[in-house]
């Protein structure tokens, strides 16, 4: 019996047990069948044990400060303490953040000095976690997605080899053209990926079996794309060993396209992320696949075996440094449901020595041809510039996007793309490892970037490891904000290094409109302030109410759907583009919206964040403007303009059509 047939038989009693109890939107526990070996060692690695007196001192300082005033405290490396306080004021929520200087003597607080403090107010929480409310009644969600990898490993390990390589990404797309987005949740090997559909009335149902999309292999990412220009969204699922193509045959049913991806050589390494673009402008979407490393379970060193297997003196899983890198790939769309490996011919094969994670394809130098940016872990990020002849050249360092402003490599994870400073160019926001800043790269023109992390105010946050990221307008004021999900990679640090918790909050940087940002956590509401170890996230208007909601993948916990509850009376405009001469998904189409004396560029892209696929409808916050003018440049090279499109509407625009069709808005 083949693996795909055997596993559902094994897992069925576990995934579909009876019972209709609902789950809460709050944190759900992970249950172990037997005690973890890690728990048996907890006493021997308590803070202050062995060589960690500094960690014990930090924990004692934090406890002493909390006893004086409730809040969150973080002892920093320079002796200062970051303090955060959430509360209420007469008109809503109050959030204060600042720094203290602490004099610690003989195990007690001798003196506390307030160095600085900043206050943020909001009328009500900006985001609400509605996961339990919307998905808690679905059996597959309750019995599969609320349980973590340790739970399933203790039950399925022998049969499926369940591991942590999946459960990173989420895809959003409208598979039946009803105006409502479906969501596809990637899972680790041995558990089926899940497709959920929103029905009339707002009810979500599991369409996995009906759609035939329950892939059982380790799945890092998935993309909804119209690969045949048929008017239907097909599905590419990226496993750690190969991409898998599922063709949309209509009515929400998909069929596997066997051997769709034809490798010119044996696949090497572990595929991590993918991005689609029409790199040769032939009207068909091609696929770039990034590769993280060449992982061999037998040869990989054990935790603590060398310097690449230690973190702050704690033994951790090794890598990526010290492990061999893999080979990135490029596949050309043949137009018949198959793809040809053009890695060698395109020059991609010559790019080596990089631990590639999230790729994003967009026209960064505005020459009409898609380029590819790849966030790389502990190595210089890649910027592959399109040569217009089917080949690429790598210029990440030369163009200012490969290293930080100090000329150092960073641990690039997820990538957000957008026009934060409203200059009509696409900028980059990249998540990084703890003790480092997340990076904001301003596109200075022609695809050359400047690191503006510190000057924009992002340098205040170095505590968390950032993953899924976005440059999106969360409050519709016309200025794109920054959003980031976070989570540590080393669960073994919990209880030993208090400064490096495994679960950490989400982060919002609100755009102040002057090139600077303001960090929000407490005022954003419990959905943002709650701690998780998160990875991918996707942005979309899941309830079609005119603002952007956020779907987040959490490790060893159910996903989180954060409903946007921002108020303020600002207006918005949505645009759905349909290509005719260009690819039908309009991937690569550039839109510049002009409203209220501002201009903002967005591009239809296949994926961003961290291994995730967003709502393909472009969303512009307009502030108080009542209309917007649009300029569209299609991938085929043609341009169109539309004047005075009314706010608070969804417009469907077809390539070469002179009419911007005001679409029925399903949210009303």
Description:
The structure is a single chain. The chain has 668 residues and is mainly beta. The chain contains nine helices and 43 strands. The protein has a five-stranded mixed β-sheet. A four-stranded antiparallel β-sheet has the order 1-2-3-4, covered by helices on one side. Strand 7 (182-185) and strand 8 form a beta hairpin. It is globular.
Write the layout of secondary structure elements.
Blueprint: H1 3-15, H2 37-40, H3 53-68, E1 72-75, E2 80-89, E3 92-105, E4 108-122, E5 127-129, H4 131-135, H5 139-145, H6 149-160, E6 170-173, E7 182-185, E8 194-198, E9 204-206, H7 208-211, E10 219-225, E11 234-239, E12 243-248, E13 254-257, E14 261-262, E15 271-277, E16 286-291, E17 310-311, E18 314-315, E19 329-333, E20 339-341, H8 343-346, E21 355-362, E22 371-377, E23 382-386, E24 392-394, E25 415-418, E26 427-430, E27 439-445, E28 448-451, E29 466-472, E30 481-486, E31 507-511, E32 517-520, H9 526-529, E33 534-540, E34 549-554, E35 560-564, E36 571-578, E37 590-595, E38 598-603, E39 618-623, E40 627-633, E41 639-646, E42 649-654, E43 660-662
Parallel strand pairs: 14-20, 36-42
Antiparallel strand pairs: 1-2, 2-3, 3-4, 5-35, 6-7, 7-8, 8-9, 10-11, 11-12, 12-13, 15-16, 16-19, 17-18, 19-20, 21-22, 22-23, 23-24, 25-26, 26-27, 27-28, 29-30, 30-31, 31-32, 33-34, 34-35, 36-39, 37-38, 37-40, 40-41, 42-43
């Amino acid at each position: 019996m083949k693996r795909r047939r055997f596993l559902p038989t094994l897992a069925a009693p576990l995934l579909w047990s009876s019972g209709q109890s609902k789950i809460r939107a709050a944190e759900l526990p992970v249950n172990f069948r037997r005690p973890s070996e890690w728990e048996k060692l907890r006493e021997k690695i308590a803070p202050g044990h062995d060589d960690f007196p500094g960690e014990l001192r930090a924990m004692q300082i934090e406890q002493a400060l909390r006893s004086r005033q409730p809040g969150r405290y973080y002892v920093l490396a320079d002796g200062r303490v970051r303090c955060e306080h959430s509360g209420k004021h007469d008109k809503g929520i109050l959030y204060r953040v600042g720094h203290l200087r602490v004099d610690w003597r003989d195990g007690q607080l001798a003196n506390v000095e307030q160095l600085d403090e900043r206050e943020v107010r909001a009328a009500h929480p900006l985001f609400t976690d509605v996961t339990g409310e919307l998905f808690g009644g679905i059996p597959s969600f309750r019995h599969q997605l609320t349980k973590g990898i340790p739970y399933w490993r203790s039950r399925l390990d022998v049969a499926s080899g369940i591991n942590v390589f999946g459960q990173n990404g989420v895809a959003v797309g409208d598979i039946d053209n009803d105006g409502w987005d479906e969501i596809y949740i990637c899972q680790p090997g041995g558990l089926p990926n899940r497709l959920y559909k929103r029905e009339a009335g707002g009810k979500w149902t599991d369409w996995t079996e009906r759609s035939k999309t329950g892939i059982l292999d380790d799945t890092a990412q998935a993309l909804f794309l119209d690969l045949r220009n048929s008017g239907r969204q097909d599905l590419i699922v990226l496993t750690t060993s190969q991409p898998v193509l599922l063709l949309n045959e209509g009515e929400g049913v998909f069929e596997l396209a066997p051997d769709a991806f034809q490798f010119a050589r044996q696949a090497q390494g572990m595929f991590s992320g993918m991005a689609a673009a029409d790199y040769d402008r032939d009207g068909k979407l091609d696929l770039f696949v990034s590769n993280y490393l060449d992982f061999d379970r037998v040869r990989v060193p054990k935790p603590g075996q060398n310097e690449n297997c230690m973190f702050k003196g704690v033994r951790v899983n090794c890598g990526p440094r010290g492990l061999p890198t893999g080979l990135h790939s490029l596949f050309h769309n043949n137009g018949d449901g198959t793809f040809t490996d053009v890695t060698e011919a395109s020059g991609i094969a010559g790019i080596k020595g990089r631990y590639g994670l999230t790729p994003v394809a967009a026209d960064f130098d505005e020459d009409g041809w898609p380029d590819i940016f790849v966030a790389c872990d502990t190595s210089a990020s890649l910027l592959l510039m399109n040569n217009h002849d089917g080949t690429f050249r790598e210029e990440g360092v030369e163009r200012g996007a490969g290293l930080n402003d100090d000329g150092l490599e960073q641990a690039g994870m997820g990538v957000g793309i957008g026009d934060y400073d409203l200059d009509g160019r696409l900028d980059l926001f990249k998540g990084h490892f703890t003790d480092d800043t997340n990076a904001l790269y301003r596109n200075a023109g022609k695809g050359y970037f400047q690191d503006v992390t510190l000057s924009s105010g992002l340098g205040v946050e170095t505590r968390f490891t950032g993953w899924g990221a976005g440059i999106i307008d969360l409050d519709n004021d016309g200025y794109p904000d920054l959003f980031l999900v976070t989570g540590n990679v080393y669960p073994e640090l919990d209880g030993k290094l208090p400064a490096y918790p495994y679960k950490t909050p989400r982060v919002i940087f609100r755009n102040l409109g002057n090139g600077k940002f303001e960090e929000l956590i407490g005022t954003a509401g419990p959905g943002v302030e709650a701690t998780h170890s998160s990875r991918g996230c996707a942005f979309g208007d899941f309830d079609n109410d005119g603002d952007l909601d956020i779907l987040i993948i959490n490790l060893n916990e159910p996903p989180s759907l954060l409903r946007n509850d921002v108020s303020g009376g600002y207006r918005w405009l949505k645009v759905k583009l349909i290509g005719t001469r260009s690819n039908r998904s309009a991937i690569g189409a550039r839109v510049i919206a002009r409203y209220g004396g501002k201009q903002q560029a967005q591009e239809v892209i296949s994926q961003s964040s961290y291994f995730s696929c967003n709502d393909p409808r472009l969303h512009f916050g307009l502030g108080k403007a009542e209309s917007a003018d649009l300029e569209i440049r299609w991938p085929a090279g043609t341009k169109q303009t539309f004047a005075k499109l009314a706010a608070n509407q969804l417009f469907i625009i077809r390539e070469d059509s002179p009419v911007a069709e005001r679409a029925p808005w399903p949210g009303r």
